């Protein structure tokens, strides 16, 4: 397999798992101080990465939560942000302009912030109440599982948290297995759609962020391919009119509560296009993850599968995933 280092991924997983005690301590301190509501905010793909955790809280917690882009929040503000609110920020570089501006604004207002970064000594870290630095270790979602999971556990809303957290230690190994399992499918997909003029990507629930991010941040930003991302419940309110025989439709199928919505999409797509692809969470073994926790880890697991598509696209199209025309290249 090209660009696949199983041992390195396991090693990175161990490093991020070792941050568990630190992350849980921050979560406990914040919970003990009181949390009226939680705002998840960042820019672009960072918001998409946080979407599953916002979705988790929305569906399972009594703590009100909100997901908004940093630029929107700067422009419009939000009356629900008060002294006992918690603002959760994500910026891998730690210097994303709008995200740093939010941290500075919250700092002036005396509102607590927790920032997730991948680098040390960043502007975001300097202006945040707490910083969780994962140093780029993968899976990056693990830090959010510890943070949000512990808050919900303290609230009495996730009594199985300790068992879940223990199983996360083996998530990188399971993700490696998924990468191996899906690699040939990913290669064939990349070969078939490397120059597709238009693709429709569909997902639901806690895979919506993954769907949106892969469509926008990988296929559009990193490969300059034209795509449309749409959620399964919204698909039948506009986008499905664009499905034709030769239009590629790709479904990231959840095994959570929204799976029936995905199945409805699959039934339609199979009928009206001969270019339908599904990446189904139920097809992945995940030998170390209990059945009750499988839906929780699907954002990280699906990224392991899609990463293989990215690697093959990069090679087949001779287009490095780091290549940009505009992003951080020109003024905008």
Could you please describe the fold and organization of this structure?
With 332 residues, this protein is α/β, with parallel strands linked by helices. It has two domains: 163 residues, Rossmann fold; 137 residues, Rossmann fold (3-Layer(aba) Sandwich). It contains 13 helices and nine strands. It has a five-stranded parallel beta sheet, with helices on both faces. Strands 7-6-8-9 form a four-stranded parallel beta sheet, with helices on both faces. Strand 1, helix 3 and strand 2 form a beta-alpha-beta unit. Helix 9 packs across helix 13. It is globular. The two termini are 38 Å apart. The model has no long low-confidence stretch (mean pLDDT 97).
Short structural description:
The protein is α/β, with parallel strands linked by helices. It has helices at 6-17, 20-33, 45-60, 70-76, 97-109, 123-126, 141-154, 161-168, 171-193, 208-220, 232-235, 259-272, 294-316, and strands spanning 37-42, 65-69, 85-90, 112-117, 130-133, 199-203, 227-231, 249-253, 276-280.
Structural descriptors:
single chain, 332 residues, alpha/beta, Rossmann fold, 2 domains, 9 strands
| Strand-pairing-aware structural class | alpha/beta
Q: What is the second-level CATH architecture of the largest domain?
A: 3-Layer(aba) Sandwich
* CATH superfamily annotation of the largest domain: Glucose-6-phosphate isomerase like protein, domain 1
Q: How many alpha or pi helices?
A: 13
Give the strand line-up of the largest sheet.
2-1-3-4-5
Assign a percent range to the helix content: 40-55%
């Amino acid at each position: 397999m090209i660009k696949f280092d199983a041992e390195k991924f396991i090693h990175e997983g161990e490093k991020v798992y070792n941050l568990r005690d630190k992350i849980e301590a921050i979560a406990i301190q914040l919970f003990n101080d009181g949390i009226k509501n939680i705002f998840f905010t960042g820019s672009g793909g960072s918001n998409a990465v946080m979407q599953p955790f916002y979705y988790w809280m929305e569906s399972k917690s009594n703590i009100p939560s909100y997901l908004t882009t940093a630029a929107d929040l700067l422009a419009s503000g939000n009356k629900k942000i008060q002294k006992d609110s918690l603002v959760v920020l994500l910026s891998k570089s730690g210097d994303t302009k709008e995200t740093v501006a939010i941290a500075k604004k919250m700092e002036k207002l005396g509102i607590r912030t927790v920032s997730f970064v991948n680098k040390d000594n960043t502007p975001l870290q300097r202006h945040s109440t707490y910083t969780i630095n994962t140093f780029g270790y993968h899976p990056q979602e693990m830090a959010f599982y510890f943070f949000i999971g512990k808050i919900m556990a303290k609230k009495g809303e996730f009594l199985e948290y300790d068992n879940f957290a223990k199983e996360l230690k083996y998530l990188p190994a399971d993700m490696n297995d998924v990468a191996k399992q899906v690699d040939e499918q990913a290669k064939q997909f990349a070969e078939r759609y490397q120059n597709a003029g238009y693709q429709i990507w569909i997902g639901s629930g806690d895979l919506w962020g993954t769907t949106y991010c892969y469509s926008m941040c990988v296929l559009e930003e990193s490969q300059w391919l034209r795509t449309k991302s749409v959620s399964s419940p919204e698909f039948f309110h506009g986008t499905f009119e664009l499905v034709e025989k030769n239009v590629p439709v790709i479904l990231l199928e959840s095994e959570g509560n929204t799976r029936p919505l995905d199945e409805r999409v699959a039934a339609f797509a199979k009928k009206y296009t001969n270019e339908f692809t599904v990446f189904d969470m139920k097809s992945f073994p995940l030998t170390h993850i209990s059945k009750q926790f499988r839906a929780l880890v699907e954002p990280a697991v699906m990224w392991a599968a899609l990463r293989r598509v990215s690697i093959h696209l990069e090679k087949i199209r001779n287009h490095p995933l780091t290549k940009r025309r505009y992003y951080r290249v020109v003024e905008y």
